[in-house]
From TrEMBL:
GO terms for cellular component: cytosol. It comes from the Bacteria. GO terms for biological process: protein stabilization. GO terms for molecular function: unfolded protein binding. It comes from Candidatus Glomeribacter gigasporarum BEG34. Residues 83-110 form a coiled coil. Belongs to the skp family. This is Outer membrane chaperone Skp (OmpH). PANTHER family: CHAPERONE PROTEIN SKP. Keywords: Coiled coil, Signal.
């Protein structure tokens, strides 16, 4: 009898007063980093910023290739002094190329990481604004599986594409 009393004391009316379930959404971070207008503009800016150094590296690589071909084709026919001078020049060009390529890669990767961090910061601010405006309790950025109906990635991409966000990324150092 006591069990029946406990069971019936929790009537459906008592359950209707229960708190609503939490509002949850998901954002696909990888998609943000692939598709956002800000990341595309950052990529274009990086290409422009590093095009001069890239061109210089290509010229050095062409010079190395040219000398290598000459040595391979005519090296045996060249006087020892001339062949030795070409080999020395080739060694110096190779060392210079490798040093400059290493510096280029380091500088490019650092700038790319800075640009990505800026986009991630902006995306996080947008996600927080969406969470507050739409009263989400939890927004997850990485998930093994999620139902597409809770995906707000398109909403974030749209907000990032609004005027002001792309210019802000380009204005950053």
């Amino acid at each position: 009898m006591v069990l029946l009393g406990l069971f019936f004391s929790h009537s459906p009316a008592a359950f209707s007063e229960a708190k609503p379930l939490a509002r949850i959404a998901v954002v696909d971070s990888d998609r943000i980093l692939r598709e956002s207008a800000a990341i595309q503009q950052a990529q274009q800016q990086l290409e422009q910023e590093f095009s001069g150094r890239d061109h210089e590296l290509r010229k050095i690589a062409q010079r190395v290739q040219s000398i290598t071909e000459k040595l391979n084709k005519k090296g045996d026919d060249l006087p020892d002094v001339k062949r030795s001078a070409m080999q020395t020049e080739l060694a110096q060009l190779n060392a210079d190329f490798q040093r400059k390529q290493h510096e280029f890669n380091e500088a490019f990767n650092q700038r790319r990481n800075e640009k990505i961090a800026a986009v991630v910061d902006d995306a996080n601010r947008v996600i927080q604004k969406i969470a507050q405006a739409d009263q989400y309790d939890l927004i997850v950025q990485e998930a093994v599986y999620f139902n597409p109906r809770i995906d707000i990635t398109d909403q974030v991409l749209k907000a990032l594409a609004e005027p002001g966000f792309a210019q802000k990324i380009n204005a950053r150092p």
